[in-house]
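Structure in, sequence out. Go:
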């Protein structure tokens, strides 16, 4: 079963990303060590898409460098 959108948001926040808000169901997150922001879309109770999971894991790894 895929994680929920709220789980991805929690992972980003634990990694030090800040929520800049967004429009509608979109949320924009930035990190001081990351060159580009990441946008997560969808309702918090909805299942995360495979590309969202991959993008979150990649950007968290990049922010650790």
């Amino acid at each position: 079963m895929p994680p929920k959108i709220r789980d991805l948001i929690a992972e980003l926040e634990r990694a030090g990303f800040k929520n800049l808000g967004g429009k509608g169901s979109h949320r924009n997150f930035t990190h001081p060590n990351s060159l580009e922001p990441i946008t997560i879309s969808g309702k918090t109770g909805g299942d995360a898409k495979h590309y969202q999971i991959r993008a979150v894991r990649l950007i968290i790894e990049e922010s650790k460098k």
